[in-house]
């Protein structure tokens, strides 16, 4: 337990209402959305409402050398917010104000606790969007998604969170407040500190203000679904679309295991024997969209894809229903769902899909794979039961192998979920000793006492 | 063993939760207080910790489990299909088994169980209420001083004569019609007798015979949701006895929570009872919400009231009506279309949808008694959505929602009338076919 003094200092700084110490509450901040991860209770949860209050919490942590685990909605998939070493959970949920929407400079400035979808709803009336759309868009906070650098379905055309963060206010481990970046499109003043903190998973600082780029909402879009009898035709189609100089907003793939599960679950009319399904959406200016849709349809047909085009919003919803059902359908098959995000260069997607089938067979596991074929970010989803120890052992071996293969194919450990606790042990495979050394030196420089999210990413 | 026999009964639900947090986006309480313990994910994890012996059934657990509207918005949003409300109800029952009921609740539930005592108390209450309640108008009153109710609150006064006293036990039909057993429920029997009158008039209009078994009693949900499974089980058995003996073709309810009691809760509560299980399942299969019965079984859609006659609703032009979906109807019973079809069939009504009509109003039965402030904050969002439609009337197929929305609107200085759709239909039936006003015992 933290000493009486720590709790008194926190209560003195924030008031009793914003300091939770009941075991019943602590239990509710002992997990995030990561599967197969035991609960770790914090010793206290604080809910500051301002930058000044965050500074005060950091000062208390500093004085008593207690770790701080910053948390938004706790939807991350790498154990990033689990307080593995106890201490303070700092929830940003009460810092939920949209501070400014600047439609002339196409920026929005928000507090970290703003929900991503709420920002999108707020900018819609200006005809603008904030493109990053992780699957948790209605739940996840801006702070959490910037800290994890989350991606989503539109990564291929629109990029991921780091492409939209322009400015940050960060409370550092020593309690200093840093402001970096701003509203200008161009900014090469010294090191790119905004990029350094984006995706730092709460290990280098605590965001208290975030300025992001907004873009005009596309005026038109066309959605298509193509069904393929074999994987290689689907792969040729993916590459063919890019070769035809079309960058779709969405280019999603589902493998046979996922198709069968989705069909059993949602009856959306997918052929059970299909090897792969591609969901493709192009968006932008109407005339361009029409030409791009035509090109996509041609490439699909040339490669033997059976094409369904959405003619109306209702049609579009039907096509998307299949993709949206992927995770729920898989998740309902077995109690434990291990969702990974190994990512490979686009051209290696078919190799990765084949390797995943082999891994499933080798370890006798059910793995359904779907994901963002256009940006090489796949979601192999392993279905298991955490009560079955022997099976979970096979799951762990399979996960190890998935990451090994992804790296062999020139890919990366994480496309969008981050390293956190769950993928720490693989980090050296990708970065090597030199990379690990750089990570440690950055951590040492900014958080020498290991107060911020200790145990995550790098020790 | 079922969900009320111990947390083991919901073990599979708990293990299915992948902690994705999708429920956070839809929980009305979490939206107000942003505390993880308010969310379904938090409660499922608490239940898991109890099962694993990491925490006991503490008073703190009981307090946090109380923060659930059982609106099932989380269940609808859950990708893994976790029935989180069932986990909450099971955990509440576990807490009561281990800790017992708080003394006040225990006394109230014991009274609720005894039909005659309960009825007599409410009769006395109806006479004496003007001492404690200041009338605002016909269906609104405000407590003069805190009689266990927040004095800011606008509630419906108790009817001078309860519905079941107003009506004979058999109404209408010519001996050939469908025999409909009407389970009135407490709110309709003691407070909103106008809904009950409308149910009977409309069923009569469509040729049904309405049987109102006099020995029926509270459905037991208030007892069950507070975790007193033993009392709820006794009440379920009593209801099964009464309605099995009534010799009816179908059972109709106009309160979705009572509907859930018959359709889902009795079979669940009596799952381990060899004698009663099948009888409860039998009654569940013939239970209908009034909107469901009229639209799906009595063909109201093809034979709207006053069809072929020139009939207009009082006033000029169309009456703008917006509809609020009660949680226990739209999610628990999946009845979304039927109430709307009923409203559209009423001549002169124009249905205007509000934003998120299926979002909980915050009432949730006794939740609004125990957590009035948060209940009002949830209600404020509903008031704004209602206001934006420009509707003059709010229809909702639940007397509980009606009471809460009336209170919420009055707090926001809004004058919309709040009714059950069947009331509008009854008005149209009266105007169209000359059916008289409220039925009295003399008709029997």
List keywords for this structure.
heterodimer; A: 459 residues; alpha+beta; Uridine Diphospho-n-acetylenolpyruvylglucosamine Reductase, domain 2; Uridine Diphospho-n-acetylenolpyruvylglucosamine Reductase, domain 3; Alpha-Beta Plaits; 15 helices; 36% helix; 21% strand; globular; B: 444 residues; alpha/beta; 5-stranded mixed beta sheet; 4-stranded parallel beta sheet
Describe this protein's structure.
- The complex is a heterodimer of chains A (459) and B (444).
- Chain A has 459 residues and is of the alpha+beta class.
- Chain A is built from 15 helices and 18 strands.
- Chain A has helices at 4-14, 23-26, 51-64, 116-124, 142-148, 155-158, 193-197, 231-243, 256-266, 286-302, 313-324, 326-331, 349-362, 389-408, 427-446, and strands spanning 19-20, 44-46, 68-71, 88-91, 98-102, 107-110, 128-129, 165-172, 177-181, 205-213, 215-216, 220-228, 250-255, 276-284, 306-309, 336-339, 366-372, 377-384.
- Chain A has a 7-stranded antiparallel sheet, sandwiched between helices.
- The relative contact order of chain A is 0.12.
- Chain B has 22 helices and 11 strands.
- Chain B has helices at 11-16, 28-33, 40-51, 59-66, 73-77, 84-99, 103-113, 115-132, 163-166, 186-191, 193-205, 221-225, 229-245, 256-269, 274-285, 290-297, 327-330, 337-344, 367-370, 372-389, 399-411, 421-433, and strands spanning 133-137, 140-143, 170-171, 179-183, 209-211, 250-253, 287-289, 319-324, 349-351, 393-396, 417-419.
- A 5-stranded mixed sheet of chain B has the order 3-5-4-6-7, with helices on both faces. A 4-stranded parallel sheet of chain B has the order 9-8-10-11, with helices on both faces.
- In chain B, strand 1 and strand 2 form a beta hairpin.
- In chain B, helix 18 (337-344) runs parallel beside helix 22 (421-433).
- The longest helix of chain B has 18 residues, at 115-132.
- The model of chain B is unreliable at 308-313 and 433-444 (pLDDT under 50).
- Chains A and B meet through helix 2 and helix 12 of A and helix 1, helix 3 and helix 4 of B.
């Amino acid at each position: 337990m933290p000493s009486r003094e720590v709790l008194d200092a926190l209560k003195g700084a924030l008031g009793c209402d914003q300091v939770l110490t009941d075991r019943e509450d602590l239990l509710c901040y002992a997990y995030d959305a990561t599967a197969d991860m035991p609960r770790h209770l914090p010793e206290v949860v604080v809910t500051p409402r301002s930058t000044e209050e965050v500074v005060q919490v950091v000062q208390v942590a500093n004085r008593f050398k207690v770790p701080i685990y910053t948390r938004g909605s706790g939807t991350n998939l790498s154990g990033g917010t689990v307080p593995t070493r106890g201490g303070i959970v700092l929830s940003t949920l009460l810092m939920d104000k949209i501070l400014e929407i600047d439609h002339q400079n196409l920026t929005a400035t928000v507090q970290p606790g703003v929900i991503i979808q709420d920002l999108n709803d707020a900018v819609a009336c200006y005809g603008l969007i904030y493109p990053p759309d992780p699957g948790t868009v209605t739940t996840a906070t801006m702070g959490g998604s910037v800290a994890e650098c989350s991606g989503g379905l539109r990564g291929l055309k629109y990029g991921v969170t780091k492409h939209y963060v322009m400015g940050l206010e960060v409370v550092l481990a020593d309690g200093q407040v840093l402001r970096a970046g701003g509203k200008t499109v161009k900014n090469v003043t010294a090191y790119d500190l905004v990029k350094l903190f984006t995706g730092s998973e709460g290990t280098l600082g605590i965001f208290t203000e975030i300025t992001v780029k907004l873009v005009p909402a596309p005026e038109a879009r066309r959605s298509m679904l193509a069904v393929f009898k074999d994987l290689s035709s689907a792969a040729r189609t993916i590459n063919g679309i890019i070769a035809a100089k079309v960058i779709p907003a969405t280019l999603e793939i589902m493998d046979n295991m996922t198709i069968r599960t989705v069909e059993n679950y949602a009856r959306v009319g997918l052929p059970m024997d299909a090897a792969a399904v591609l969901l493709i959406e192009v968006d932008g200016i109407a005339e361009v969209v029409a030409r791009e849709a035509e090109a996509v349809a041609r490439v699909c047909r040339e490669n033997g894809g059976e094409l369904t085009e959405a003619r109306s919003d209702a049609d579009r919803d039907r096509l998307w229903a299949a993709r949206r059902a992927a995770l729920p359908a898989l998740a309902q098959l077995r109690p434990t769902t291990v969702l990974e995000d190994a990512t490979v260069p686009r051209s290696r997607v078919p190799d990765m899909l084949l390797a995943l089938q082999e891994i499933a067979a080798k370890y006798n596991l059910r793995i359904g794979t779907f994901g963002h074929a256009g940006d090489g970010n796949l979601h192999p989803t392993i279905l298991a039961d955490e009560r079955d120890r022997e099976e979970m052992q096979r799951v762990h071996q399979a996960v190890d192998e998935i990451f090994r293969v992804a790296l062999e194919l020139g890919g990366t450990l994480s496309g969008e979920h981050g390293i956190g606790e769950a993928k720490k042990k693989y980090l050296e495979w990708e970065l090597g000793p030199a990379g690990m050394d750089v990570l440690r030196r950055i951590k040492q420089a900014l958080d020498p006492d290991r107060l911020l999210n200790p145990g995550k990413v790098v020790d | 063993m079922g969900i009320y026999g111990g947390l083991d009964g919901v073990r599979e639900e708990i293990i299915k939760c992948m902690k994705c947090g999708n429920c956070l986006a839809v929980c009305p309480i979490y939206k107000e207080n942003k505390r993880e313990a308010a969310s379904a994910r938090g409660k499922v994890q608490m239940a898991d910790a109890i099962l694993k012996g990491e925490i006991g059934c503490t008073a703190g657990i009981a307090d946090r489990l109380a923060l659930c509207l059982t609106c099932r918005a989380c269940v609808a949003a859950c990708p893994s299909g976790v029935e989180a409300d069932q986990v909450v109800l099971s955990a509440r029952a576990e807490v009561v088994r281990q800790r017992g009921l708080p003394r006040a609740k225990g006394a109230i539930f014991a009274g609720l169980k005894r039909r005659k005592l309960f009825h007599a108390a409410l009769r006395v209450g109806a006479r004496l209420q003007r001492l404690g309640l200041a009338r605002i108008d016909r269906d609104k009153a405000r407590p003069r001083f805190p009689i266990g109710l927040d004095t800011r609150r606008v509630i419906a006064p108790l009817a001078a004569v309860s519905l079941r006293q107003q009506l004979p036990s058999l109404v209408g039909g010519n001996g050939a019609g469908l025999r409909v057993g009407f389970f009135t429920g407490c709110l309709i029997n003691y407070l909103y007798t106008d809904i009950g009158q409308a149910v009977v008039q409309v069923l009569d209009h469509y040729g049904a015979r309405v049987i109102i078994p006099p020995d029926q009693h509270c459905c037991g949900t208030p007892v069950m949701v507070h975790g007193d499974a033993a009392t709820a089980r006794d009440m379920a058995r009593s209801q099964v006895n009464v309605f099995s003996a009534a010799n009816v073709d179908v059972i109709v309810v106009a309160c979705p929570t009572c509907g859930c009691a018959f359709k889902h809760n009795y079979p669940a509560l009596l799952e381990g009872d060899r004698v009663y299980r099948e009888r409860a399942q039998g009654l569940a299969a013939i239970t209908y919400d009034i909107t469901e019965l009229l639209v799906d079984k009595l063909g109201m859609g093809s034979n709207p009231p006053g069809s072929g006659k020139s009939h207009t609703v009082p006033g000029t032009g169309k009456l703008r009506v917006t509809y609020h979906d009660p949680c226990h109807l739209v999610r628990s019973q999946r009845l979304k279309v039927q109430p709307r079809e009923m409203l559209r069939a009423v001549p002169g009504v124009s249905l205007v949808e509000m934003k998120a009509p299926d979002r909980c109003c915050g009432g949730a039965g006794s939740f609004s008694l125990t957590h009035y402030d948060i209940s009002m904050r949830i209600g404020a969002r509903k008031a704004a959505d209602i206001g934006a439609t420009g509707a003059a009337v709010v229809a909702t197929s639940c007397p509980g929602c009606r009471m809460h929305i009336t209170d919420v609107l009055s707090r926001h200085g809004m004058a919309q009338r709040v009714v059950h759709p069947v009331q509008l239909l009854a008005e149209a039936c009266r105007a169209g076919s000359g059916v008289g006003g409220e039925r009295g015992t003399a008709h029997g």
